[in-house]
Amino acid sequence: MASSMSSGGGGGGGGGEPMSPASRLFHSPKFNCYVMAVMGCKTSVNHQVIKEGLRETILKHPRFTSKLVKKGRKTRWISTTIDLDSHIIVPEINSSEIEFPDRFVEDYISNCTKSPLDITKPLWELHLLNIKTADAESVGVFRMHHSMGDGASLMSLLIASTRKSSDPNALPAMPAATTVKKDEKHKRGFLMVLFEPLMALWWGLVLMWHTFVDLMMFVLTVLFLKDTLTPLKGAPGVELHTKRYVHRIVSMDDIKLLKNQMNATVNDVLLGITQAGISRYLNRPEFVGANAKKESSSVLKKIRLRSAILVNLRPIGGIQDVADMMDDKSKVRWGNWIGYIMLPFSIATQQDPLEHIRQAKATIDRKKHSLEAVSTYACAKLVLSLFGVKVAAFIIRRVLLNTTVAFSNMPGPVEEVSFYGHPVAYIAPSVYGHPQALTMHFQSYANKMIISLSVDPSVIPDPYLLCDDLEESLKLMRDVVQKKSVEDAV
Question: Which of 61, 146, 247, 434 is catalytic?
Answer without folding.
Answer: 146
